[in-house]
């Protein structure tokens, strides 16, 4: 089969590639749509980071293999022990994996990684996935939009853990793909005002289109100027840090009111230096969120299917499987991009 295979930093090759034979507890999915995730981009620009150069102790898989964990498709074949999906079913995959591939995923501390990062993923015509992570897609939801469930679930999990309440104020620092999903989720959760902060006017314009009430370029506004412009004496109720660098981590705390909540969604590619005394003086709570629970993934699927979250807004480009290497370069360099979807099977499904 054809696949966009990841070998290492800045090295993705579209070539013929074959996975191991389908296992008894696995489902073979003909991939329809796959999104390029920020974590995929980190692997491409700075990696390997979370992909195994040596055999992974849980999956025994190692590079090279295709990345890709935000995807939907149609069941092509099933293993001998598979019972809850059948050939021809339209499905979306929850790519979070545990040692036993149990469906709770990151509900507990045994979450170990993602399909597409520790085993072959969906920048390929076919992908094998454990039955436990394969879910049927409602008939009314196009597979294109089902592929957006995974990134939106990441944002929704952070929103749940931050206990964002109806009528609260929100700041989102960093409006790449997950920042955009956070804006969509916060709006759906009833935030009364959402402010987006970034260094890119192009991304800020997109954030405005996605529902941000105000946008600020950090080149032109410092933290106090943002608070003054918003008329906030003390700060935002909840701030989401989605940029992953030291200045934005500090700024997130500065923007948040005493006993407010900072939620970190970003993947920090490098260590940072930071003085915890900032928390002692500010009384701000800080937490990090990774992935999503089993229920959050399914809840997000339902929210998108019933139109409560219009995740289609985050799509900025659609490309073919042959164009995946160029797609990574586009996402890395074009700040107008949020979610680039790969139309793997070439059909509009």
Please sum up the structure shown.
This protein has 349 residues and is of the alpha/beta class. It is built from ten helices and 18 strands. Its cofactor is Zn(2+).
Secondary structure elements and pairings:
Blueprint: E1 2-8, E2 11-16, E3 26-35, H1 38-46, E4 65-66, E5 70-78, E6 90-93, E7 96-97, E8 113-114, E9 126-130, E10 134-136, H2 143-146, H3 149-161, E11 169-173, H4 177-188, E12 193-198, H5 201-210, E13 214-217, H6 223-230, E14 236-241, H7 246-255, E15 256-264, H8 277-282, E16 285-288, H9 294-305, E17 315-320, H10 324-333, E18 339-343
Helix pairs in contact: 3-4, 3-9
Protein name: Butanediol dehydrogenase
Domain Enoyl reductase (ER): 8-342
Keywords: Metal-binding, Oxidoreductase, Zinc
Please describe what this structure looks like.
This protein has 349 residues and is an alpha/beta fold. Helices cover 27% and strands 27% of the residues. The chain has helices at residues 38-46, 143-146, 149-161, 177-188, 201-210, 223-230, 246-255, 277-282, 294-305, 324-333; strands at residues 2-8, 11-16, 26-35, 65-66, 70-78, 90-93, 96-97, 113-114, 126-130, 134-136, 169-173, 193-198, 214-217, 236-241, 256-264, 285-288, 315-320, 339-343. The model has no long low-confidence stretch (mean pLDDT 93). Keywords: Metal-binding, Oxidoreductase, Zinc. Its cofactor is Zn(2+). Belongs to the zinc-containing alcohol dehydrogenase family. Residues 8-342 form the Enoyl reductase (ER) domain.
């Amino acid at each position: 089969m054809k696949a966009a295979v990841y070998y290492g930093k800045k090295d993705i090759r579209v070539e013929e590639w074959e996975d191991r034979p389908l296992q008894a507890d696995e489902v073979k999915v003909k991939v329809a749509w796959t999104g390029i995730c920020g974590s995929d981009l980190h692997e491409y620009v700075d990696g390997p980071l979370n992909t195994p150069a040596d055999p992974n102790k849980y999956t025994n898989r190692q590079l090279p293999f295709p990345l890709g964990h935000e995807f939907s498709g149609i069941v092509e074949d099933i293993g001998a022990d598979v019972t809850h999906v059948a050939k021809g079913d339209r499905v979306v995959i929850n790519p979070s994996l545990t040692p036993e591939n149990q469906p709770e995923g990151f509900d507990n501390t045994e979450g170990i990684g993602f399909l597409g990062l520790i085993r072959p993923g969906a920048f390929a015509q076919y992908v094998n996935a454990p039955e436990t992570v394969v879910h049927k897609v409602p008939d009314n939801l196009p597979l294109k939009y089902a592929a957006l469930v995974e990134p939106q679930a990441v944002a929704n999990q952070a929103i749940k853990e931050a206990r964002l309440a109806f009528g609260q104020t929100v700041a989102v620092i960093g409006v790449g793909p997950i920042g955009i999903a956070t804006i969509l989720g916060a709006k759906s959760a009833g935030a009364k005002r959402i402010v987006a902060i970034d260094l890119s006017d192009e991304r800020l314009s997109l954030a405005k289109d996605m529902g941000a009430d105000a946008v600020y370029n950090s080149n032109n506004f410092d933290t106090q100027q943002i608070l003054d412009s918003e008329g906030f004496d003390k700060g935002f109720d909840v701030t989401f840090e989605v940029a992953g660098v030291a200045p934005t981590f500090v700024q997130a705390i500065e923007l948040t009111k005493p006993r407010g909540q900072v939620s970190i969604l970003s993947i920090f590619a490098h260590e940072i230096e930071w003085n915890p005394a900032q928390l002692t003086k500010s009384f701000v709570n800080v937490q990090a969120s990774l992935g999503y629970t089993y229920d959050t993934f399914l809840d997000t699927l339902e929210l998108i299917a019933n139109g409560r979250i219009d995740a289609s807004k985050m799509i900025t480009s659609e490309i073919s499987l042959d164009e995946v290497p160029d797609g990574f370069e586009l996402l890395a360099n074009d700040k107008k991009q949020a979610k680039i979807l790969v139309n793997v099977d070439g059909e509009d499904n």
